[in-house]
Amino acid sequence: MISWPAAVTGIVLAGGKSRRLGIDKTTMRWPPQGGTRTLLEATAGTLAQVCDEVLLVNYRGAHPLPYRVVPDRFVEGGSLGGLYSGLLEASHDYALAVATDMPFLSLGLLRWMLAQPRDFDVLVPVRDEPEPLHALYSKACLEPMRRRLEAGRLKITGFFEDVRVRYIDEATLRQLDPEGLSFFNINTPEDLQRAVDLAQRLGRAG
């Protein structure tokens, strides 16, 4: 059992189409050369170190994983629909949500976020813009999310105006994750090559 102010569910959005990358992000090996896990397993494994349970939203891979898979309640709802689906199924009042393709999540930053007083409905890092797929959500977000989804308004941060949002400023982020690698996504072949180069550099640095 993880010891935090209150138990938290981890959510990994695993239903993306990976069109630009051309490789299924949930089943690709990470790292591509010599990796023993998939990218999804690596991401979920990081969340499992800080969350009491981990849910995989809309995971369709044939390889079974030791996490509960939950269906997407809004098939055409994009990331907002996936987030809603995971939060709805979460066993706890708060859930930490990330995307599948984030291989450099910082445990230090995640632990800092989970240690904050729960006086918010959304705790979200901000760099140039908010990072809603690296954020902590309360179940108070469900009804505002549902209204947006049913109206076809799928911008993931659109419901923020209806809930209590606490933003993590860039100065705090630089202290906790100086290079900002937590927010690195693998969306294109160029991103994948950069991720491989980063993994090799970080591996050499220990």
Explain the layout of strands and helices:
Elements (H helix, E strand, L loop, with lengths): L7 E6 L15 E2 L6 E2 H10 L4 E5 L10 E3 L7 H12 L4 E6 L7 H8 L7 E4 L8 E5 L3 H9 L14 E4 L1 H7 L12 H17 L1
Task: Write structural notes for this entry.
This protein is an alpha/beta fold. Helices cover 31% and strands 18% of the residues. A hairpin with an 8-residue loop joins β7 (122-125) and β8 (134-138). It starts with 7 loop residues before the first strand and ends with a helix.
Q: CATH superfamily, please?
A: Spore Coat Polysaccharide Biosynthesis Protein SpsA, Chain A
> How far is the N terminus from the C terminus?
28 Å
CATH class: Alpha Beta
Oligomer: single chain
Q: Which structural category do the helix and sheet elements fall into? A: alpha/beta
Strand content: 15-25%
Instruction: Please tell me what the overall shape is.
Output: globular
Number of strands: 9
Secondary-structure arrangement, i.e. CATH architecture: Alpha-Beta Complex
- Domains (count): 1
Largest sheet: 7 strands, mixed
**Run of helices and strands:** EEEHEEHEHEEHEHH
Radius of gyration: 16 Å
Uncertain stretches: none
Please give the count of helices: 6
Strand order of the largest sheet: 5-4-1-6-8-7-9
On the 0-100 scale, what is the average pLDDT?
90
